[in-house]
Amino acid sequence: MNWSTIETKWDDYKGAAQKQWSKLTEEQIKGTKGNRVQLSAKLQHAYAVTEAEADRQISDWQKRQMEKAAGAAKS
Q1: Mean pLDDT score of the chain, rounded to an integer?
Q2: CA-CA distance, 71 to 75, in Å (whole number)?
Q3: Given this model, what pLDDT does residue 75 score?
Q4: Is 71 in contact with 49 (CB distance < 8 Å)?
Q5: Residue among 22, 28, 17, 24 at smallest CA distance from 62
Q6: What is the helix (H) or strand (E) element at residue 24, kind and residue range?
Q7: Residue 3 CB contacts under 8 Å (≥ 6 apart), including other chains
Q8: CA distances (Å), 38 to each of 17, 21, 43, 70, 71, in order?
Q9: Please, what are the domains in the chain?
Q10: CA torsion angle for 31, 34, 37, 40 (degrees, to 10)?
Q11: Are 33 and 26 in contact (CB under 8 A)?
Q12: To 10 degrees, what angle do helices 36-47 and 51-74 make?
């Protein structure tokens, strides 16, 4: 699953994003509309991390979402 899939179906993923990054408000998560650059910027600000660290966290989260989707498809 590439990021454009997540962005297109952001309403399906924003709850998982909120759970992952609880320092971000629901409005902040919703406001990104799944835009990876905006999400990264919000993470950098809220968690005081570098752009590289924010991007790593997003990539790890994306991988978990792909694994969940693959598991759901098998069921």
Answers
A1: 95
A2: 7
A3: 64
A4: no
A5: 17
A6: none
A7: 36, 62
A8: 13, 14, 9, 26, 28
A9: 3-74 (1.10.1470.10)
A10: 80
A11: no
A12: 120
Query: What is the pLDDT averaged over residues 45-71?
Result: 95
The pTM of the full predicted model, rounded to 2 decimals, is 0.91
Residue 59 vs residues 19, 39, 50, 66, 74: alpha-carbon distances, Å: 16, 12, 14, 11, 23
Q: Residue 20 in 3-state DSSP?
A: helix
* Rounded-to-integer distance, Cα 17 and Cα 3, Å: 13
- Residues, the chain: 75
Tokens encoding 27:
């409005």
The two structure tokens encoding residue 40: 């990264």
At 62, which amino acid appears?
Q
